Amino acid sequence: MAEEKAIFAGGCFWCMVKPFDQMPGIKKVVSGYTGGDVENPTYEQVGSGTTGHTEAVEITFDPDIISYQQLVEIYWQQTDPTDAFGQFADRGDSYRPVIFYSSDEQKLTAEASKERLQASGRFKEPIVTTIEPAQPFYPAEDYHQDFYRKNPAHYNAYSEGSGRKGFIRQHWQA
């Protein structure tokens, strides 16, 4: 059985799990931290902005069922790709949008997808999501895992109140 990993940062990792978790071919979605210079950082350390980490999700998937290209397309539809300084109500480097690639193929796929999105005219502003090499990924604390399942009322209130759901409705479901 084939297995690959994809790492995406798109603001609060709570909101990045559900869209992938429910797709065929997804084996696991883990909330965590990547891109920083401290081993095994805590939520508090990452939130302080001193570790260089970004909140992200690591997706383990079966490429025979769902392609990396499909994952990238799902990713775009969860984010504001024109906002380099955070996502929705979450501001700062730990919430910046990033596609982390782990192979040349993933890099080329992500770059081509970003170019298509920019050329589509869907957004008037430039697409500023960065595409960077994968770095060590550290799972977040247990209470952050599968948050949408463990705390559905909080998750729904947060994803609506942060502006994420409204943005998605306006830009992706119109």
From TrEMBL:
Ranges of residues in domain Peptide methionine sulphoxide reductase MsrA: 5-156
Keyword DNA-binding: no
SUPFAM superfamilies found in the cross-reference section: Peptide methionine sulfoxide reductase
One annotated GO molecular function: L-methionine:thioredoxin-disulfide S-oxidoreductase activity
The EC number(s) this enzyme carries: 1.8.4.11
Catalysis: reaction(s): [thioredoxin]-disulfide + L-methionine + H2O = L-methionine (S)-S-oxide + [thioredoxin]-dithiol; L-methionyl-[protein] + [thioredoxin]-disulfide + H2O = L-methionyl-(S)-S-oxide-[protein] + [thioredoxin]-dithiol
Superkingdom of origin organism: Bacteria
Enzyme class per UniProt: oxidoreductase
Keyword Ribonucleoprotein found: no
Active site: 12
Protein keywords: Oxidoreductase
Role description: Has an important function as a repair enzyme for proteins that have been inactivated by oxidation. Catalyzes the reversible oxidation-reduction of methionine sulfoxide in proteins to methionine.
Family listed: Belongs to the MsrA Met sulfoxide reductase family.
Record protein name field: Peptide methionine sulfoxide reductase MsrA
Organism phylogeny: Bacteria, Bacillati, Bacillota, Bacilli, Lactobacillales
UniProt gene name: msrA
